[in-house]
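How it folds:
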Amino acid sequence: MKLNHSIHGLRGMCALMVFVGHVISMSITGGYLSINEYPTRTLAEIGVDIFFIISGYLIVQSLVKHGNVKKFVVNRLIRIYPVFIPLLMVMFIAGPLIGFDWLGELNPVEYVFAFLASLLMLPGVFPLEEAVRNARTLSFEFAFYLVSAIFFLSKRNAGRKALQYTLLILGLAICIVVCYRYPRALFFLSGTIVYFLSDKIKGLNVDIKIAKYYSIIALVGIYFCAYYHQVYVGVIIGVCFFAMMAREYGLLTDFLNTKVMQFYGTISYSFYLLHPFGLFPFQKVMGKLPLPDYASVAVTYVGGLILATILGYLSYTIIEVKVTNRLFKKKRKAPVMDQAPAAV
């Protein structure tokens, strides 16, 4: 599949939106900032929402293009786990030793259960504690992979009505449970709708001046929907927003196509998972220094961004590229657009 540079850059922008939200929340937790974090927390939330939209588009596209559920599942596992497992091991080895959060309070049975639950990406969809921060969203990613595969198999078995309807009911049941647990998972639907309308979107006549601003206006709309908890309206606006991304049209796409956004799009998965590690040292240190709040937050932002970028880049080049290709080169048949995960 041809790389859509706007979508690729959008991954980077979403990862940075989540980063900004966590700079503020970790500064507050660190004790050197006292403000209402809701506006920036909303920014982080829509970063995740848009990641879900991207997944809804690319995962269905991958299934339809390749027509093979087994290859799809193998590609997803190879794409997600090489970065995730080392982080999980670090948390479950170092966490109990230093008494980090709830990891320092586990008995042996609870420890094994928590490790296996985290390994299977259960925290998020199920009300369980997460060891790797931000991995909660991966739980919903995996649920979407499962639902997509089930619906795909249902369509493939159209001649066997009993099996087809059983698969459809199973897929719908999982969707209902997941969306009841986390309504924002509905944003996967936005991307899926855009994919199935992709032929019509390509033929859209957008040669009017105001059309250049559609994606920016829609992005602002998604933010306010998240701010005021209007998920269903946000999902609809998400279709309009992502249609412009799929079409690669508008002023926002010009920004997303810059080298900086393309770079962060490439390392977005590692950056997303590792950026709390980049912010953590600053969270612990800045509250102990006699600096004004704004200076402490600025140092946290700049220093955390530099450290998180370094960690993300190293993880991408060493784990996502070199190690993964060496271990799974024969098994992995990744499309061009799979340079970064469908979501984080």
Remarks:
- Residues 334-344 have pLDDT under 50 and may be disordered.
